[in-house]
Amino acid sequence: MTVHLLLGRLCVLVNHLPTTDSDLSNAIAAERERQRDTLAMIASENYASESVLEAQGSVLTNKYAEGDPGNRYYAGCEHVDTVEEIAIERAKELFGAEHANVQPHSGTQANLAAYLALLEPGDRILSLELSHGGHLSHGHERTLPHDHFEVFHYTLDVDTGRLEYDAVAERAREVNPDLLVSGYSAYPRRVDWTRMQAIAEEVDAYHVADIAHLTGLIAGGVHPSPVDTADIVTCSTHKTIRAGRGGMVLCDREYADIVDRAVMPGCQGGPLMHNVAGKAAGFGEALRPEFEEYAAAILENAEALSEQLRARGLELVSGGTDVHFALVDLRNTHPERTGLAAERALEEAGIVANKSAVPGDPRPPTRASGLRLGTPALTTRGFGPDDLRTVANLVVDVLENPADDAVEAAVRERVSELCDEHPVYE
Ligand SMILES: *Cc1c(COP(=O)(O)O)cnc(C)c1O
After folding, report:
1. Under 8 Å between Cβ of 153 and 126
2. In what residue span(s) does the Serine hydroxymethyltransferase-like domain sit (predicted)?
């Protein structure tokens, strides 16, 4: 254990919790080991740096700061003002945005704020169908936006697994939405933001681009940005960008006030200042030149993974990837190989990934027919393309040999070696 760690957040965990609360301390220590000893391939996950963890585990958790920097409802905010101003300035620089609100507690709340800022109750939202790669927060029937707005969906082309923009435009003319949502959870290809904006403009709708998954790729310059194109851009801050956990809204000055008031008091109270500090720390790291290399390496690794999965006979939705994950279509493999079965078998072998629906999926989302395999976290650990080809082989070995203990043990062993070769949180 390094001095840096001892002095940082971990002194809280290592020095105090074990004596004050051993049950909790043991669970946290076990989770740390799990993160260290398994392959984290959930595409939305990453390893935050120790600096980010330190900022998030700081005394900032104690402070109430409703309002905006310099204009709070509480006294004693001079230092949290500085923290939030740093986060805002870095976010603006990173994404070239005129305005940033870094207070949303999550990406879901950033979306809620965007809807609240732009829409009246009963207005129409048009977003991608969940089972085609959309997100719950884009108006799923069991969510708040679904109760307040009229929600319609567009789909991917089930044959190509891609957005066919002419079909989206046609659906927009049919629905005549007030808001078009772009940006997805499980779409393995680049999004043409300009085209989506043109579709929104044609039907006189606002355009919200949700870059939750793409933040790091956009900040690192390896995926086009919708900032300057869409009306409002929303995101999570802990996925590819690997900053503190939470959400953010980016927009032009003209929307700044309505966005700020939609975030607070519209959908939340006091900001989580420790998480805002985590965002600031992570954005600071993302502004360094090394981050561009990291973003490029995520894609290079996803490419190597995808090619090897295909070489071993697996089908990928859309035939490949432009982003940070591959989406495996299990439908034409074994009839019992559901996304859920694949997820469970891989977890037994130390590979943590998640099931995902594929476009036109005949199975319910609880079982699904797809498997999403992401590279952001492994890339943070220093895995390279050769490692990802190895990982692809391990994944296929597991999928091809269900309930074979010898294969599972061999894969586990190799996973262990890979983890030792690329340590994290030592
Ligand atoms: C992950 C994600 C979000 C937000 O998720 P939170 O868990 O609320 O931060 C929003 N939109 C998309 C497309 C996502 O993938």
Report:
1. yes
2. 18-394
